[in-house]
Amino acid sequence: MRINEQIRLSPIRLIDHNNEQKGIVPTDQALASARELGMDLVEVSPTERPPVCRIMDYGKYKYELKKRQKQRQSHEVTIKELRLRPKTDVHDKEIKMKRALDFLAHGAKVQFTMLFRGRERFHQDLGYEVFKSIVDELATQAKVERPPKMEGRRMTMVLSPMKH
Length: 164
What we know:
Layout: E1 12-15, E2 21-25, H1 27-36, E3 40-45, E4 52-56, H2 58-73, E5 79-84, H3 90-105, E6 109-115, H4 124-137, E7 142-151, E8 154-161
Parallel strand pairs: 1-4, 5-6
Antiparallel strand pairs: 1-2, 3-4, 6-8, 7-8
């Protein structure tokens, strides 16, 4: 985009700061009215004949544009939770693994939660073994973001998808 003195062609089609068409005016006159308002003359459509120029605050426009781009780039990372027990059957664990692979393929993080009840709490080593087998099984698709950790009666671990 050309601004102020960079606009060489004359005359131009002018749009003022209130988005009203002012018609075709000489470039120096449009530049003078833009300076009077403390704004810039910005070439909006250079391919038209005569080129279309707008009176606006160019710094503010660039700031808004950058702000909009940042909003567009950020996306929400979702965390999906899969719950297990130390005595979860092999087949049930396989189903949970398929669900985890599906979540990871769609770019979501997966939190595995193992719930311990009663005397199971004294056998945390079983939980660590199950989580280790999960990590080994998903090693090509995911990496450990948060290793297994006991929090009260539950053990949690978070896996995030590999960047390919």
